[in-house]
Design a protein that fits this description.
Aminopeptidase, Membrane-bound Lytic Murein Transglycosylase D, Chain A, six-stranded mixed β-sheet, 17 strands
């Protein structure tokens, strides 16, 4: 009996080669400049990438691997891939063939299993002639007066869903909806030009998000998220800025660690690791960038307080990788806890998404109307408004005009005064000299 069992067991080992890996799912996302295909594996597997011409094809040979998932329902429309087929070669190696309809530059890499996701084989097909996303408008009607550029970053995306709430509500979908609402509000504001870091369901690395904001010469980077915690009772919206030292709370440190691990889920290879030098963070303490981030974040938090319960009353700080831009004020907005059933329902509501976008928008506008960057239309408009002066006993119009070095006629015209009569306590607008 024992020998028979051993013989059968050995037969099973021969039927299923040692170390055989299974592809249990295949997923595809289209980004503006590339197509990503992810093979979810039951374990690590060696692979080889081959490019073939006439006709144009990409071949992936994956050693000791089988596949059971179907590839017929992959969303190939709008991608450079016309057809995907699979086969077995050399007895037990998986061959995946992608027939192409456009010229691409392929790159493949293996991501080992971690706390966030299992083993994955990632294939990126970069467009040889990428479509250029329209740059944000830099000028307005007055020549040499540029717009204020707001980079809006919807967190997560693609294979990284972010936090998952009740009824499988995904953070990546909620924050993209809020980001689009904020984009529309800012686009309607004269003197402001928003630019979306992520416009659809695909992943952008944390470093890539910062780089895009810098390439587009952003005056502000705002990253939008929805929080989560193991206890469903946790709730409330928050605003964060970068910390160059420790986090301001245990919760802030936990959140930053979780958000910084997004690249592990989003499929970023080791060659894409963040190489920002420690000196860059030191530079932050020597500039106004971090100070402006905190003050601007306070304006946003104040407006969010009008429509949502706050998790903390002040702007918190932690080492968020996505906020490490030394020259761009950057904030991260947690719009609520998607893990909280009540807040998850709100975040899934289109009406609440609009409310949240309006609150963020109001805070951004409030800050920039008071502190517009030099050379912008908003700065020029503020200058034209001049400053305000309250008339004191003994003042005369001519003396006030002389004090502020403006023509008396201009002072009268700016305030609608035809004669010389003025009153104590009356407020005058002093035109820009």
């Amino acid at each position: 009996m024992g020998r028979t069992w051993i013989r059968v067991f050995l037969g099973m080992l021969l039927a299923f080669p040692a170390g055989a890996v299974e592809v249990h799912d295949v997923r595809l996302w289209r980004a503006p400049d590339h197509t990503r295909i992810v093979f979810d594996l039951s374990g690590p597997a060696e692979h080889k990438l081959i490019e073939l011409d006439s006709p144009s094809r990409i071949v992936l040979d994956v050693q000791d691997t089988t596949i059971k998932s179907t590839l017929s329902d992959l969303p190939l429309a709008g991608t450079p891939v016309a057809l995907v087929r699979t086969g077995i070669r050399d007895g037990d190696d998986l061959r995946v063939v992608l027939e192409l309809n456009a010229d691409v530059k392929p790159r493949s890499f293996l991501l080992r299993a971690n706390d966030q996701a299992g083993d994955r084989l990632v294939l990126d097909l970069y467009d040889r002639s990428p479509q250029q996303q329209a740059a944000p408008t830099k000028t307005v009607h007055q020549s040499d007066k540029r717009d204020i550029i707001i980079a809006i970053d919807a967190g997560h995306g693609g294979e990284d869903p972010g936090a998952i709430g009740p009824n499988r509500k995904r953070e990546k979908d909620v924050v993209l909806a809020i980001a689009k609402e904020l984009n529309a509000l800012l686009a309607a504001d004269k003197g402001f030009s928003p630019t979306m870091i992520r416009t659809g369901d695909y992943y952008v690395s944390l470093r890539g998000r910062r780089d895009l904001a810098r390439q587009r010469q952003a005056d502000l980077f705002v990253s939008i998220h929805a929080d989560a915690f193991k206890r469903k009772e946790a709730r409330g919206a928050s605003v964060y800025a970068l910390s160059t030292s420790g986090a301001t709370s245990t919760a802030a440190r936990y959140l930053a660690q979780r958000e910084n691990e997004s690249d592990l889920v989003g499929g970023v290879s080791l060659s894409d690791k963040d190489d920002i030098l420690a000196g860059v963070l030191a530079d932050l303490s020597m500039t106004s960038t971090l100070d402006n981030s905190l003050k601007l974040g306070g304006k946003v938090l104040h407006n969010m307080d009008r429509i949502a319960k706050l998790h903390k009353k002040g702007v918190e700080q932690a080492g968020f990788a996505v906020l490490k831009s030394p020259d761009i004020p950057s904030i991260l907005v947690e719009t609520g806890f998607i893990s909280n059933p009540e807040e998850s329902r709100l975040l899934a509501s289109s009406a609440y998404q609009k409310k949240m976008a309006r609150a963020i928008h109001a805070g951004i506008r409030e800050w920039f109307l008071a502190h517009p960057p030099s050379g912008t239309l908003v700065a020029w408009q503020k200058q034209q408004q001049g400053q305000q002066y309250t008339i004191a006993r003994g003042d005369t119009l001519s003396a006030i005009a002389q004090r502020f070095n403006v023509p008396l006629a201009d002072l009268k015209i700016r305030n609608g005064i035809s004669g010389e009569k003025i009153m104590v306590g009356q407020k005058l607008l002093i035109p820009a000299s």
